[in-house]
Amino acid sequence: MSDYILELKKVSRYFGSVIALKDIDMKVKLGEVHCLLGDNGAGKSTLIKTLAGVHKASEGEFLLDGQTTEFESPKDALDAGIATVYQDLALVPLMSVTRNFFMGRELTKKIGPFNIFDTKRANEIARAGLAEMGIDVRDPEHPIGTMSGGERQCLAIARAIHFGAKVLILDEPTAALGVKQSANVLKVVARARARGLAVILITHNVHHAYPIADHFTLLNRGKSLGSWLKADVSREEILEMMAGGQELEDLESELAEFTRTDAAANAGEGSTFEAAAAAQNAHH
Amino acid sequence: MSTMTTPVQHAQKNIPPDERLRSESSLKKLLTRPELGSVSGAILMFIFFAIVAGDSGMFNADGIMNWTTVSAQLGILAIGACLLMIAGEFDLSIGSMIGFAGMMISIPALYWGWPVWTAILFAFAGAMLIGFINGYIVVKTGLPSFIVSLAFLFILRGLTIALSILFTNKTIVSGVSEVAEGDILAAAFGGQIGTSLFSWLGTNGWMEVYADGTPIVTGIPMVIIWWLLLMVICSFVLLRTRFGNWIFASGGDDKAAKNLGVPTDRVKIMLFMFTAFCATVFAACQVFEFGSAAADRGLLKEFEAIIAAVIGGALLTGGYGSVIGACFGALIFGVVQMGIFFTGIDSDWFRVFLGVMLLIAVLFNNFIRKKVTGAR
Questions:
Q1: Domain B38-369 fold
Q2: Which among A86, A94, A115 is the nearest to B372, CB-wise?
Q3: A190 exposed, middle or buried (CB, 10 Å; 0-12, 13-18, 19+)?
Q4: Residue pLDDT, tens place only, B195-224
Q5: Which chain A positions have a beta carbon within 8 Å of B319's beta carbon?
Q6: How far B144 CA lies from chain A's nearest CA (Å)?
Q7: Are residues A61 and A195 in the same domain?
């Protein structure tokens, strides 16, 4: 039994001549939320697909519970307890909550020679599984098309947990959600952590990540900028590192330039930008 | 945040309802049933023809048997088409398959001297193989099944005519009844059941009889039995089994289903084979009822089957539909087709009616889908 359920040592991934990931080190513990931060094109997607068994690492070592592992397919990863909830959620809107919950892993019972879908028990389990994550489903036979984006995200997470995930990889779970719904999803993440799962949370939104994460890993242009415990780093530091300190400074001077050249219109623009940032900070 | 209930509250029995959810009337729940349109449509048709054609003999024993048989024939095809549509694919080759399968039964039985039952098994095997090829091409190439099966519509129709001329020099092969005499498998398609019951009803005066004492309905044609059997089995499979969930998932979101380990390719190929099976059941019933096979049998049946499935609530985009609904769709077909005959309305109006019916059904389904998916 290793301290870490998942460990990457100098993992690299190349696509032809493209270096998508270079020398990534990452350690994930059970019962912690590990936040993977990075701007667009930083290599987040490649990294999670490597963790999920979609890609194989070109170089480096992948340890699962202290054992060197190599996944041949996403199914291998899933069997090893690494479940990934992608942005498309793998849900069918026209199908009921229960049918979605058990899609591909239908609960059956034998009646005579027939294996039938045990709707009643499946309904109870789906309902209970969602209730544990803090979602109250009125009618598990209701199509999920009417559920909100946040609820669907929670359903996908609850499903992964129910089917025995030890490591839960969430790809931008709050990307398309409003503030309130994001908060609900983050609460579900907290519940998953409380149940002893390791959660790898991919996001580029520091404001969503900071309150929930225990550990941060920053990616930039395929390389890891480092890993920090929450205690060792502030939100502003992360934000600065993510955007690249230099780029933020550039932005500031550009904005100042706008203000000078076109005082009337662009001054308003600049101040709304700052106001928005301030409001977001204040909210958390 | 106040909308989230804590686990403690969940443990209690009285969970306060989420204020974002409106309470739904049972009417709206009923509205989301895919069968609703076709069941209510069928009831309307019965009322209409009971008023218009109530005394024309349409609702006598032989009249009922008449439109039930027509409905059953189409219903068998509609069940196959419906399951395939729920899985997100079309098969336009159903109609051509009927002609082809009929020839696959008749030519070996009449010209090659095969026992009839082997010819029937041969036809089923051949048809399902073609269904397999059809499905295999669709899932492996990712091409729309519309276009692949359209190709098979022409290939099979052409083959049926060309091969029947090659082997028999005719496009209508008759005389199957004589060789099918006493063949149990042939009787399973062309026979009737309950004949003794009906003659008993006749002799006791509970059913009208002809001058020679035979009742006007001598028995229930096997095609009706096949229809009911397939309806019960397929509806059960669709709603109550793992495979049924896979059908919904394959049509609802192919990629999502695949990601969760649903073998969507296998599901679709099996359903292409099943529509071919249904077309062959139809063909066999027809061959042994008329005692002949013709190269032009089943013309346009693929569209009628799809229309019945759509009236029955199936969405053209897949993922939604009902076997029971498709059967009621077929029943509407049979009732109207025969009803128009019984009322003496010019039968040209049947097609007008069909088109209007289809349009209404599609509009209605579209509305329902928006309700179900919560689209605004």
A1: ABC transporter involved in vitamin B12 uptake, BtuC (1.10.3470)
A2: A94
A3: middle
A4: 888 888 888 877 778 877 788 888 899 999
A5: 92, 94-95
A6: 20
A7: yes
